[in-house]
Amino acid sequence: MANIVVRIAELDDRKRVLAFTSSTFSWGDYIERVFDRWLNDESGRLLVAEAEGMVVGLSFVKLTKKGEAWLQGGRVDQNYRRTGVGEAMTKECLRIAKEEMNASVARVITDKTNLPPQRLLTKLGFRVVSEFSEFEKAAERIKDPLLTRDVRLAGEELITDMWRYLRSSPIFRKSGGLYTVWFVWYSLGKEDLARFVKDGKAVVYARDGKIHGIMLVDDSTIEAKNEKSIQSCYFDSDAGEGVQALSNFLLDYAAKKGFGTVRLWTCSDNEIIESLRQIGFIGEVGGSTEIVYSKEL
Ligand SMILES: CC(C)(COP(=O)(O)OP(=O)(O)OC[C@H]1O[C@@H](n2cnc3c(N)ncnc32)[C@H](O)[C@@H]1OP(=O)(O)O)[C@@H](O)C(=O)NCCC(=O)NCCS
Predict the structure, then answer these.
(1) From CA 215, how far away is CA 205, in angstroms rounded?
(2) I need a surface site. Which of 18, 213, 233, 259 has the fewest CB within 10 A?
């Protein structure tokens, strides 16, 4: 469609945007909850697209870390889809990311079942870097110490060994070198790992003095989803027992801290997923599998 204008969103756009985003997905949409926050986010730009003088699209781009931009919230009014609006907004997000935010990479996720954005991203040169799945289980006290054997919170003396483990881990490669906090993915560098350790949110599975698994956790989901849950941000073990011991540790840790649900995010690795299922973690139902796309700028 000719004459698509992409511009920075204003407070006055709110009503119109909410009108065409109230029921984007079968479960509704989350735009209403984030519109004001995104509009006022100093490290982000909230964009709208106009066609025929009307606001028909929304998109958000944010600098999440030095050099890394995150795209989110792409929405086009049903009546204006397939007319180039999504493409125009995504290109503008990429321009802003590169020229105004100095980012060298842009990332975005789409639900595995959602094909239109996947096609759009492929058309614009994004490539798939990973796939992550979410599994859930109610928090529970794990009384049998054998079930969490060899698992403990990591101390700072372990950072170098943990980083070495990650550097040669096939799961780290499969994860695209990324971790997630509440539906945003970030590169996992040694300094990020150190931060998780210092915050008491890094867990190791170690046998005979050697690391065989790492789990990073975060509890910010409580605020974002208004529920008491805890998530794993990165999950990795080279042994089935490690997968189970780490997840049992998280179930117990969550129960002790009063969280209701554990949301376990992991890269979609068959062996990890099989081990999680064996101890009752449920995937897909209410959870999701997300494809992570990336584009060099
Ligand atoms: C995804 C979405 C933003 C795409 O917006 P759009 O304005 O319809 O997309 P465009 O018209 O700019 O399409 C650009 C390209 O994307 C691909 N594409 C978009 N929609 C498609 C569809 N339904 N089927 C196949 N390919 C599609 C095509 O390659 C298209 O290029 P082409 O028309 O030259 O073939 C829109 O479908 C939408 O709002 N969906 C609901 C919300 C959503 O799922 N957002 C993404 C969350 S990650």
Answers:
(1) 8
(2) 18
Q: Which residue has a Cα nearest atom 27 of ligand 1?
A: 116
- pLDDT at 248 (0 to 100): 97
Question: What dotted CATH number matches 5-103?
Answer: 3.40.630.30
CATH 3.40.630.30 segments of the chain: 5-103, 132-291
Fold of 132-291: Aminopeptidase (3.40.630)
* Cross-strand pairs, 59: 47
Distance 86 CA to ligand 1 centre (A): 6
Helix and strand totals (H; E) in the chain: 10, 15
User: Which residue has its alpha carbon closest to ligand 1 atom 42?
Assistant: 75
- Asked whether residue 273 carries a pLDDT value surpassing 90, the answer given is yes
* Ligand 1 pocket check for 76: Cβ under 6 Å: yes
The rounded Å distance from CA 83 to ligand 1 centre is 9
What would the pLDDT profile of 72-105 be if each residue is shown by its tens digit?
Answer: 999 999 999 999 999 999 999 999 999 999 999 9
pTM for the model stands at: 0.95
